[in-house]
Amino acid sequence: MSKLKLSLSKLPKPVKIAMWVLLAILAYALPLLEPPFITTPGVDFGGVLFVVTMYMLVALGLNIVVGYAGLLDLGYVGFYAVGAYTAAILTSFHANWPLLFALPIAVLASTISGVLLGAPTLRVRGDYLAIVTLGFGEIIRLVAVNTEWLGERKGISNVARPPSVGGTEGLFEIPHLYWGDGTVLIDTQDTTKFLVFGVLDQIPYYWLGLTVVIIMLFADYLIKNSRVGRAWEATREDEDAAELMGVPTFRFKLLAFATGAFIGGLAGALYASRQNFINPDSFLLLFSILFLAAVVVGGQGNRWGVLVGATLVAYLPQRFREFDDFRVLVFGLALVALAILRPEGLFPPRRTVRAKQLEQELEELEVGTDGEEKAHA
Amino acid sequence: MPDTPILEVDQLTLRFGGLTALDNVSFDIKEGEILGLIGPNGAGKTTCFNAITGVYKPTSGTIRFNGESLAGKKRFEITQAGIARTFQNIRLFPTMTALENVLVGADAQHTTGMFSALFRLPKHRREEAAGHDRAMELLRFMGLAKQADELAANLSYGDQRRLEIARAMATQPKLICLDEPAAGFNPQEKRILMDLIRKVRDRGFTVLLIEHDMRLVMGVTDRIVVLEFGKKIAEGAPAEIRDNPAVIAAYLGVEEEDAS
Fold first, then answer.
1. Which residue, A110, A242, B30, B38, is most buried by CB atoms nearer than 10 A?
2. By three-state DSSP, how is residue A2 classified?
3. Where would I find the ABC transporter domain in this sequence (chain B) (predicted)?
4. Cβ contact (<8 Å) for A246 and B151?
5. Does A292 have pLDDT greater than 70?
């Protein structure tokens, strides 16, 4: 794994960029290619991929809070809910805004809720923060259940969809592939209209989600490699030492919380828009745990790791629906196995990778000196 | 050497419940000097450090830095104002590289926020370049340039101690407080460290040094303050301290027992 990474990092820059572009094209084309084994039998592949991108988005946001700043947040679904409900209220329940106007407000609302929750609670540490955030997630849901203005248990329907480009027929149609027995055909009957956000074809939502994920990846990279990212990491490693080195830790923790809430709210609003309908059951505690699982499974602190984690958590249960009854059991077993075999996650950040490399180098050195000694003897 | 005090500790008292850790301690540090703070275990040296750097709030008494009281200032504000420190037990950021550790220190004087970072504004680029230059320069000064990309956790013990000093210097302090920087060193390493501390002073820093090893403190400091059971029992040039009967009785006696 680390060898692969090393040889990749040695490639010249244009080659690297070309590889990334190719990877991105492949990612965009994935639902059109409908590759066998990967497609989900019985469920709409595009829809599953959209959910995967939402988990990715949420995992990236939660990774900032948990992975970078080291704040255990067990109520992340609360921000997701604030974003979703704000979008739903503004586009359907109490107003008739287009989604594009509602999105910034939804994101703003969840960011503010992050600041409001963080300002008093980020002064406590560790377990206490986990408990407070756990309560926050549940409170948001219970408020939604009990408030008529928020649709109570019935929820809110007719949430606005993103605006389609080129009317109901789109600009052009893109055919899908059809995988027969040993043959691959272009299926002109099965097409996706570019770019229509409709009811049946969910692929445009996936493209939207994927685009947002890519933007967030860039943003994540830019922030991580700056004073802000270093301050988060220093705070996570040793809060007191960081403070004594001139890091206003509280301010940076609040910033991490607000950033996480921003991304969570965005994901919630997009989810509400695609789903067209939300009710409090979309925001159960279970989702907070799944989001956290995505971050932890992938390897908290590593943006690519959490993307893989999000993919596993969102995709595997859909791919293997035939084992539906055992889904939670298998998931639990997988988590236990992971905790034992790879406690740092599947793709831990470079710290562990680097430490291992060093270990190996030391071993090689030791072997080398042993050899010399033997030669001398 | 100018005689203006950079730090004035005035009748500093610190109580934890019934325990008086510091009792009416007063001393000055003059700009450009190396002041030794010594005393047997539990004398209150580190407590004094913690009071100066804002970790503990004084029960009574004042600490003035550059003529300005530090009361009510937060820890990071005190660092930004120009007091940096190292720790008795090494407290680096283990999963960050040596360079990143020093960069965190350098960031103390920076103000780049989320927005500047996100859009790579000139401010971000300027501060990032300046911080990087300063950090690399300090690593070279400490002889750690080769290990710049090594994780702090993977550095040798001595390198970690030196990295802590580099990180503290990166915050551009006027006063740098070293809490037993030679702890765990052999005599040879201690000598090298003492030279280093002198070099730190020659770069314009004022140094407050806590140290256990008497010989070492005598060799490097300009003046020494001796604490015992939270009280100041002596103050003066190293030669005076060496001959002070109270110090010999209180400190050296205990030191011998410690050594056995």
1. A110
2. helix
3. 7-254
4. no
5. yes
- For B11, phi then psi, to 5°, come to 50, 45
Contacts of A252 (CB under 8 A, 6+ apart): A69, A228, A231, A232, A235
Examine the domain organization and report whether A233 and A312 are in the same domain.
yes
Distance CA A33, CA A27 (A): 10
By C-alpha distance, the chain B residue nearest A215 is B118
Residue A359 has pLDDT above 70, yes or no: no
The backbone torsions φ and ψ at residue A123, rounded to the nearest 5 degrees and listed phi first, read -80, -20
Residues A291 and A339 in one domain: yes
Query: Apex CA B84: angle with CA B63 and CA B98, to 5°?
Result: 165
Pairwise CB contact (< 8 Å): B114 & A259: yes
Full-model pTM:
0.88
| Residues A89 and A201 grouped into a single domain | yes
Q: Are residues A148 and A259 located together in one domain of the fold?
A: yes
CATH of domain B1-82+175-260: 3.40.50.300
The domain in which residue A44 lies consists of 21-162+197-346
Mutation target among B53, B74, B75, B92 for the A interface, most CBs of A within 10 A: B75
Answer yes or no: is A52 within a domain.
yes
Mean pLDDT computed over every residue of chain A? 85
Interatomic CA distance for residues A334 and A373, integer angstroms: 46
Question: Which chain B residues touch A241 with a CB distance below 8 Å?
Answer: 87, 91-93
Separation CA A329–CA A313 (nearest Å): 13
- Pick from A244, A255, A349: CB nearest B114: A255
**pLDDT value at residue A38:** 81
Residue at A266 is within a domain: yes
Of B80, B95, B112, the CB nearest to A226: B112
In a shared domain, residues A110 and A212: yes
Name the residue ranges covered by the structural domains of chain B: 1-82+175-260, 94-172
For position A293, which CATH number holds? 1.10.3470
Segment B170-222, tens digit of pLDDT: 999 999 999 999 888 888 998 899 899 999 999 999 999 998 777 788 889 99
**How close is the nearest chain B Cα to the Cα of A259, in Å?**
10
Length of chain A as a residue count = 377
Please enumerate in sequence order all residues whose Cβ is within 8 A of that of A160, keeping only pairs 6 or more positions apart, or say none: A87, A91, A92, A97, A98, A99, A102, A273
d(CA B71, CA B64): 8
User: What φ, ψ does residue A183 adopt, rounded to 5°?
Assistant: -125, 150
**Could you tell me if A147 and A256 lie in one domain?**
yes
Average pLDDT estimate for B34-44: 88
Q: Which site among B96, B104, B174 would you substitute to test the A interface, given the most A Cβ atoms closer than 10 Å to its Cβ? A: B104
Q: Does residue A250 form part of some domain?
A: yes
Angle formed by the axes of helices B187-202 and B157-170, to 10°?
Answer: 10
Q: How many CB atoms lie within 10 A of CB A285?
A: 15
* Contact at CB, B107 and A227, closer than 8 angstroms: yes
Task: List the single best residue of A244, A250, A359, A360 to mutate versus B (max B Cβ within 10 A).
Answer: A244
The answer to whether position A25 is within a domain reads yes
Closest Cβ opposite residue A222 in set B91, B117, B153: B117
- Contact present, A57 and A263 (Cβ < 8 Å): yes
ipTM: 0.91
* For residue A117, cis peptide bond before it (omega within 30 degrees of 0): no
Residue A227 CA to residue A247 CA, distance in Å, equals 10
